[in-house]
Amino acid sequence: MSDFIIGFITDWGYLGIFLMMVLENIFPPIPSELIMPFAGYVAAQGDLNLVGVLIAGMAGSLLGTSAWYVAARLMGIERFTWLCNRLGRIATLSEHDIDMAYHWFARYGALAVLVGRLIPAIRTLISVPAGLAAMPVWRFLGISALGTLVWTGILTAAGYVLDAGYHVVEAWIDPVSTGVVILVVLLYIWRFLTWKPIKDIG
């Protein structure tokens, strides 16, 4: 995947960074931990502008994460609960789980979005409860933009400062990101295997 991302950014520049970051937020296995450090490296070589790289990365990230927010916002908590009830074991969510998550997010929503944007895998998923809780769109975008600026800024700066050694960033960040994704998958499998219906929904 590294070679594909590097080649795509090399060929398409700012547009390539933007599109990669959109996909990274819609399809989490595409890692920003590879996209932005290499983009920072390219900027250090003088082929791209550092500010332009940051803007392209942030814009793509916000557009990608907004897609999940809009989908969840349009579905709403009632239809989401109805769908999860009928998907049962596949969803691994009960109505009780959804109620608890909804009230927790209603209390800590802003902080959850800000911190969530800094955690691999969670960066995408946090948009769903934000949409379900009907967080005001401008508030969601503002908080997401702040978290995105911090995350993409760190990765881009690392690639820029390390220059040709940008791959060092991949050597320690990518395994951590992979570990988080594996943990999320294992948690889902555990919930899938241990799921029991609370009540008969008819």
Major sheet details: none
Calculate the mean pLDDT score and round it: 78
Total number of domains: 1
Q: Helix amount, in percent?
A: over 70%
Strand residues, percent: under 5%
Structural class: mainly alpha
Spell the H/E element sequence. HHHHHHHH
Shape: elongated
For the secondary structure, the number of strands is 0
Q: Between the first and last Cα atoms, what is the distance in angstroms?
A: 45 Å
- Low-confidence stretches are none
Summarize the structure in words.
The protein is mainly α and 202 residues long. The chain has one domain (2-194). The chain is built from eight helices and no strands. The chain is elongated. The mean pLDDT is 78.
Helix and strand topology:
Elements: H1 2-26, H2 32-44, H3 50-87, H4 95-116, H5 122-125, H6 127-132, H7 137-162, H8 167-194
Helix pairs in contact: 1-2, 1-3, 2-3, 2-7, 2-8, 3-7, 4-7
Give structural attributes.
membrane, DedA_domain, mainly alpha, 8 helices, 202 residues
Summarize the structure.
The chain is mainly α and 202 residues long. It is 80% helix and 0% strand. The model has no long low-confidence stretch (mean pLDDT 78).
